[in-house]
Specification:
rod-shaped; 8 strands; Immunoglobulin-like; four-stranded antiparallel beta sheet; alpha+beta; 35% strand
Length: 186
Amino acid sequence: MSDWLGMSASRQAPRPELKARVLERAFAVRTGAPWWGLAAAAALPLALAGAGLLWRHATRLERGLAATRDTLNLVRNPGTRVIPIPVVVGARTGELTIFADTISHRWLVACHNLAPNAPGQAYQLWFVTERGMRVAAVMPMDHDVPMVMAIDMPSDAGKVMGVAMSVEARAGSALPKGPMLFHVDL
């Protein structure tokens, strides 16, 4: 078996010029192409991070679009009543507009030009029902900016016959205790 082709050759030293050429290439400082590999390795994490940020931004935009569509559906529904209510606080007149959807039993409430609350206070919206006053929403107004919110009508309170607004403690109240700003029958 020792006479195989690879095992039968005798050992020979490489020619000196070949040995010198191989060692020169092995120890030579490489220039040229290897920089792109480092650039690609550095760019990959940046590209992944950028893709993640774009994905998060797209998800946030989708949620915002879904909320806008839901709001527009509520406003454009044929069963929606628009109820504008003037709100006077001190010398300032603002407006609360209710888009009441009689089909889904939801309200879209928009507040414009309401005076900011005093520290520790908030506006509180009430449903006037067959079974008494029910909390609709606590609306702390710290700044002079419009506020919009969607509110589900209570299912266990019977018929909603009106809406009222009072000024209450910041945490809200189970029953109206503060000054009543308006009480409107629907």
